[in-house]
Amino acid sequence: MAKRSAVSEPNDSDRIEGFAHPRETFALLGQQAALGRAARALRSGRPPGAWLITGPPGVGKATLAYRIARYMLAYGATDAGPDDLSVAQDNRDARQVTAQSHPGLLVLKRAINQKTGKLMTVLSVDEIRRLADFFGMTSGAGGWRVAIVDTADDMNDNAANALLKMLEEPPGNAMLLLLSNTPGRLLPTIRSRCQRLELRPLDSATLEQALIQYLPDVSHPERASLARLSGGSIGAALTLATGDGAALAQEADLLVDNARDPDPLALLSLGEKLFRIRDGLEQFGDFLSASLAERIRAKAHGGTPGLERWVAQLGRIEQGFARASGLHLEPRQVLLTTARDLARTARGGAL
Q1: 192 and 51 in one domain?
Q2: What distance in Å separates the CA atoms of residue 51 and residue 221, rounded to the nearest whole number?
């Protein structure tokens, strides 16, 4: 059997301070439909070579990917393991996955730029090319190799084309798990070559029950507020509960509340604050998108007409903040531009 040094994740940028990383998380909240579909395919002995795991940030995409990876590395494409794809924490393969030392698992994500200390803006073609060497190696004792791309949204054009070539010539006994927050941005040819597992926002009851476990010292009204602001994302709820999350969520609500008449001085002050917070602009963009999406859903349920312009506005915000965060643009200018765009939309009717 070919040997190689353990390949560790380049960073833990997706870890929420004070809580377990997805590779250390063995419980999957909700998402029974996606889990059931994956389990049937894996245990049938004929799983697809590539899964596209989609859904909003923080709803369990990475947790599900690691659950699938642990099962494949421990049991292969057989029904020898539990039908919910669970693997005991003291299982050898599970321990190696947690320790980032399993020779059959490769995780690709944006790396930290050693010069700036910040995340690279893209998942580069050089990272994706590592898949060819990894999948070309002799498989481990379990017979399978699994690679996780977290997230496929971060790939630049060259990386996407390199991945497409891999999908066109899939190796045997290999599984690729692509995570995506916005699958519509991926190449149609990549999407068409993957089986899709779509994760949904968690319902309020599931989310509040989880928050009792994760935040036992937080009062019921505070947990209810976190559940409302998070848009069905446990990741967003836990982020809100730590550091500057709650304050940023309130600022996002305020910007939507005052969409017709934003306060430029307040926005400049907020921009300076975001500059000082690690990934502050990205966090604020997530909260702003969640706040706007929640209001659109509420109006849609009430039968309010003419929401198309707000749906388009939501899309512009998501794309704009993703680009601004990736390019490390100046937060104050991003906020002012966003506020002007919101104001133009609000003149046609506020939410």
Answers
A1: yes
A2: 38
Determine whether 338 is exposed, middle or buried from the number of CB atoms within 10 Å of its CB (0-12, 13-18, 19+). buried
Min mean pLDDT across 12-16, 41-45, 190-194, 249-253 is at: 12-16
Tell whether 173 and 268 lie within a shared domain: no
Q: What is the pLDDT of residues 213-229, one digit of tens each?
A: 999 988 888 788 788 77
Answer yes or no: is 31 within a domain.
yes
Nearest to 106 by CA among 139, 75, 76: 139
Residues 323, 263: one domain? yes
- What is the distance between the alpha carbons of residues 289 and 241, in angstroms, rounded to a whole number? 18
What is the rounded CA–CA span in Å between residue 275 and residue 329? 10
Non-local CB neighbours of 246 within 8 Å, separated by 6+ positions = 240
Q: 311: how many CB neighbours lie within 10 A of its CB?
A: 12
Residue 72's CB is within 10 A of a number of other CB atoms, namely: 28
Range of the domain at 43: 22-198
Residue 34: how many CA atoms within 13 Å on its side-chain side? 26
Task: Tell whether the model's pLDDT for residue 273 goes beyond 60.
Answer: yes
- 187 and 329 co-located in one domain: no
The sign of the dihedral angle between the CA atoms of 320, 325, 329, 334 is positive
Do 48 and 145 belong to one domain?
yes
Specify if 148 maps to a domain. Answer: yes
Q: Give 281-331 pLDDT, tens digit per residue.
A: 988 998 899 889 888 988 888 888 878 999 999 999 999 998 898 788 999
101: domain CATH number is 3.40.50.300
> At 7, is the pLDDT very low, low, confident or very high (cuts 50, 70, 90)?
very low
Residue 341's pLDDT band, with cuts at 50, 70 and 90, is very high
